[in-house]
Every structure is written in C-alpha cells, then in structure tokens.
Amino acid sequence: MRPAAGQVLHFSEDSSITRFVPHVAATAQQPEAYVWAVDRDRAPDYWFPRQCPRAMAWVRPETTEADRDRIIGAGCGERVHAIEYAWLEAMRTTILYAYRLPADRFRPFGEHAQVAIEPVEPLCAPEPVGDLLECHARAGIQLRLLDNLWPFWDQVVRSSVGFSGIRLRNSRPAER
C-alpha cells in the first residue's frame, strides 16, 4: 500500500474518518497542531498496528558493508523491520486502513513525515491495507521477530544504516 503520484497516506485502524483536523499528538515533541501523513518511502513504517513498537533499519549510500551484513543481514535485502514476539498476533489480526490525501496540502516534517496545518479531507474512501505480513513480503522488507527490541535498537543507532523507531515506549523494558 503506497500513495500514487500527488498523494500522501495516513494509516489508521479507524475506517470512519471523513476529515482530518490538525491536533497536537499526546506524544508530540512540538506544540504545533498538525495532520500527519507519509510519502511513498515512509509508508512501510506504518504497516503495523498503531501501538506496535517497531525498530526499522535500511541501507543508505553511506552504509558500510559490515553494518549492512550485521544489521540488515547478508543477502537479506535493503531493509529490516523488527517487532517483538508479543505483537505477532496483532500483526496477523489488525485491520488497518490507508487514507489517500492530496500531497499539495502537506510539507515535509523532518526526515520521515509530511504535515498539514489546515483540515484535510481524504481523496476517496479508506482502503483496507490487507495482510500486514504480506505487505512486508511483497515489498521485500524482512520482518524480524525479537524477544526484546532494545539490543537490536542499540546496535542500529550506533551503525551507519538509516533508521527509525516508532512507539518504542510500548516495547518490553530494556535488558541492559
């Protein structure tokens, strides 16, 4: 599930949204109210149940061969997403919807998001994303199951790969 040209996506478990209104998220690190969306490259970051903690890593031009093999895995593609075993059943059963929104209403926010400061109406009815495991498989993104995300995350952030962590506060406590 990726946006078409001129679109960004918002993913939700709620299929009844008819208008997105800017708000300050409970976990926001900034005081401004936004409508949040993602572009084509960031869409896979949201092929998860909303509250699922995930650690994601991908190859960048500056990624060393050693880090690629250590973090992504030799012969394992360009990208890995990791979740904890406790979230596997939710990955199998959550029904997730994609809302297509007009990209011209949004501007980049950091490296990973798009934001709008005015209300935005979807371009069409929300679309079921489908099997979240299958989304990863079709995109060639390995989905790694771990007992605890923190040892992996600690290695990722000290490497030369690109990375993003979402909802990490919902993961098991670190075993340090």
Textual characterization of the structure:
The chain is of the alpha+beta class and 176 residues long. The protein has one domain. It has a four-stranded mixed sheet with strand order 9-4-3-10. The chain is globular. 31% of the residues are buried.
Describe what is shown at a glance.
The protein has helices at residues 65-73, 88-93, 132-139, 149-157; strands at residues 7-12, 35-37, 54-58, 79-84, 97-102, 107-109, 113-116, 127-128, 142-146, 162-166. Strand 6 (107-109) and strand 7 (113-116) form a beta hairpin.
Count the helices. How many? 4
Give the uncertain stretches in residue-range form. Answer: none
Mean pLDDT: 94
Cross-sheet strand order for the largest sheet: 9-4-3-10
Strand content: 25-35%
Number of strands: 10
What's the number of domains? 1
Helix-strand makeup class: alpha+beta
N/C terminus separation: 37 Å
Rounded to an integer in angstroms, the radius of gyration calculated over CA atoms is 16 Å
* Helical content (DSSP H or I, runs of 4+): 10-25%
Order of helices and strands: EEEHEHEEEEHEHE
- Global geometry: globular
Largest sheet: 4 strands, mixed
Can you give keywords for this protein?
three-stranded antiparallel β-sheet, 18% helix, alpha+beta, four-stranded mixed β-sheet
Topology overview:
Layout: E1 7-12, E2 35-37, E3 54-58, H1 65-73, E4 79-84, H2 88-93, E5 97-102, E6 107-109, E7 113-116, E8 127-128, H3 132-139, E9 142-146, H4 149-157, E10 162-166
Parallel strand pairs: 4-9
Antiparallel strand pairs: 1-5, 2-7, 3-4, 3-10, 5-8, 6-7
